[in-house]
Structure prediction request, 286 residues.
Amino acid sequence: MAAMERVGVVGCGQMGAGIAEVCARAGLDVVVVESNPAAAEAGRRRLETSLARAEKKGKIPDAAEVLNRIRVTESLDELADRTLVVEAIVEDEAVKTDLFRQLDKIVTAPDAVLASNTSSIPIMKLGTATERPAQVVGVHFFNPVPVLPLVELVPSLLTAPTTVDRARAFAQDALGKQAILCQDRAGFVVNALLIPFILAAIRMFESGFATREAIDEGLVRGAAHPQGPLALADLIGLDTTKAVAESLYEEFKEPLYAPPPLLARMVDAGLLGRKTGRGFYTYDRP
Ligand code: NAI
Prediction:
């Protein structure tokens, strides 16, 4: 049963921390792996801050009790006994395939599910990096994970139906999310539509056609979006936005998916949005 899953999460950035949080809030035991001590410490702080906020808002009775179910470590070996691992590291195909190769050797349960939160990298590439592609599936959460109810489930051509069932039970029954089934194409459903829209907004800003405020206010007030596309790019992270655009462009070769030069320059400059304190807008805290 999904409620019995022993969950592992790799990466404790914006998404990994959010996934670990919703799992622990659902009563699951969670091990989170980061790449080095500084990143693990930052991940721990991220979890503490988010859970303290949830407690203050009355969403959970006791942040400390939830935090007790999460262990943050730098050792992938601690994932050995996990029944379901969700990968949420940097959106880089080579780094992710290398991780799946390692997870395949480390995670011992023969029926363990190896899931990826990738936004755009083919699940097939991750599955075939392992000896168990039938147990590899995309489980794509949305940011912020504790708030947004959607999960995209993405089987590759080699994913077994039982793996999809397990992933669905995990997302829907254990975490209370709503799942949609997507094909293994770059961007799945949501980002295949959302990313070209964000890129069009960046091109509009870059060309001087409109200010960032006019673009964002236009979409908020004129199309009832909760936030404008440039503010949304800052929330997603400009590095992730660019990486997803590149995967879409690589897959479909359509100019609408090509990252605009301004986006590339901002990423080169380390202006990654909220997580670094500056993107299209500036933020008090990362
Ligand atoms: P992030 O940059 O906030 O976090 C990535 C984390 O992974 C960092 O803390 C980094 O230290 C860690 N990491 C990198 N390599 C690692 C390794 N080998 N082992 C362990 N940890 C490692 O990025 P974010 O936004 O959390 O994105 C992560 C994944 O989630 C990406 O695949 C992205 O496409 C996907 N995603 C992102 C969304 C967003 O809105 N930012 C939404 C849905 C999916």
